[in-house]
Amino acid sequence: RFIACPQLARTVRRCLQRGAGPQPLLLEFAPGPGILTRSLLDAGFRVVALESNLDFLTDLQSLENSLDGQFKVIHGDFFRLDPLAKGALKPPAVSSDKLFETMGVAAVPWRADVPLKIFGIVPQQLERNRLWRLLFAMYECCSIYRYGRVELNLFISEKEYTVLTAKPGKTKIYQALTVLAQLGFEIELLHK
């Protein structure tokens, strides 16, 4: 559910630093104890963390208080962004409008540079449903895509990666999810 190994945190940080500007902004979801978060902060990233687990929230808030605006933690769940329910949202549900306002991210044209990098581990429970939801939001230009393109850096299972990158002719794994994902996303394996 989160990165606990410092060596893996350094590997992920190197992947996220590629193509990043001088003080890149990163949305990290489910950071857990914050091992990757600290590595990213040390590398100069500005990080906004969405954490839904109250057990980790206090330590992350303490880290936020010790820094001068480089880190912001929000009680929220990335996979409960923009729920369909009407009315006021109760955490861990979060509105992407409020989230992007908090991060200081303004809408940009889709032809512009990526205004935001997102990193997280997709839970294997309902993993395919979560990937479908991200895909639908991209085609609808809503939720995290309302502000332009974003760079998703996700840990997903090898099974789902195989489906997302399947080639025509692989009848058992080449599916609608495969076609739509390959049309909408540029999929690159960063680490295995």
TrEMBL record:
Record has Transcription as a keyword: yes
A single Gene Ontology CC term? mitochondrial matrix
Q: Where does the chain bind S-adenosyl-L-methionine? A: I3, E51, D77
Which domain of life does the UniProt lineage start with? Answer: Eukaryota
EC code(s) of this entry:
2.1.1.-
Query: What Pfam families does the record tag this protein with?
Result: RrnaAD
| An annotated GO BP | transcription initiation at mitochondrial promoter
Which compartments does it reside in? Mitochondrion
Q: Which InterPro entries match?
A: KsgA/Erm (IPR001737), SAM-dependent_MTases_sf (IPR029063)
Q: What protein family is recorded?
A: Belongs to the class I-like SAM-binding methyltransferase superfamily. rRNA adenine N(6)-methyltransferase family.
The protein here is known as: rRNA adenine N(6)-methyltransferase
Record organism: Cettia cetti
